[in-house]
Structure to design on (186 residues):
């Protein structure tokens, strides 16, 4: 009788049917009952925790140029220059009138002569009435384009470069604006 059971369903002494290798591999492929980390309740619990939210905010601030977490700020910016420069840029962008904006840009450049890598800020400087400032912003944009750091560029950049190309008194600046515009279009 024991022989009958082995012939009919397999499974040896236990009486359970043995799985084929195909069935075993299919079971392994399924893995967990959750298809992604977002579906896993344990992962969702971790992501909702206050410490994870704090960590995520600090990481976002580090990579997006926001305010550095306290520990990193002491290491990377002990004198607070980065924070002061960020506030000065904010003051320029929040200017209410064009005259205030022009003055704020001049004040910013007197305090921080090295322009930032912010394409949106540089784009706005192309609209400044002083050609020296426009030239400086154009030069910085050219460097960023050469380094491949202008992937996320403002929509208005093409039109501002065209404006510099048409209205600048300096033929060299006109040709540089045209060349940069063509390069960014390609």
């Amino acid at each position: 009788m024991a022989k009958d059971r082995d012939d009919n369903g397999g499974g040896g002494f236990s009486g359970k049917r043995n799985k084929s290798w195909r069935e075993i591999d299919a079971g392994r492929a399924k893995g967990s009952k959750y298809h992604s980390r977002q579906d896993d309740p344990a992962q969702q619990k971790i992501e909702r925790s206050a410490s994870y939210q704090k960590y995520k905010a600090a990481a976002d601030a580090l990579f997006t140029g926001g305010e550095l977490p306290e520990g990193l700020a002491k290491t990377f910016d002990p004198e607070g220059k980065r924070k002061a420069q960020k506030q000065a840029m904010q003051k320029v962008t929040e200017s209410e009138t064009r005259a205030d904006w022009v003055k704020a840009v001049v004040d910013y450049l007197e305090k921080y002569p090295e322009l930032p890598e912010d394409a949106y800020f540089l784009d706005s400087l192309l609209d400044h009435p002083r050609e020296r400032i426009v030239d400086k912003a154009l030069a910085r944009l050219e460097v960023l384009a050469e380094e491949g750091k202008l992937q996320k560029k403002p929509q208005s950049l093409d039109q501002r470069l065209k404006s510099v190309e048409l209205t600048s008194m300096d033929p060299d600046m006109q040709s540089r604006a045209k060349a940069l515009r063509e390069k960014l279009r390609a």
Remarks:
- The chain has a mean pLDDT of 82.
- The radius of gyration is 31 Å.
- The CA atoms of residues 5 and 14 lie 10 Å apart.
- DSSP finds eleven helices and no strands in the chain.
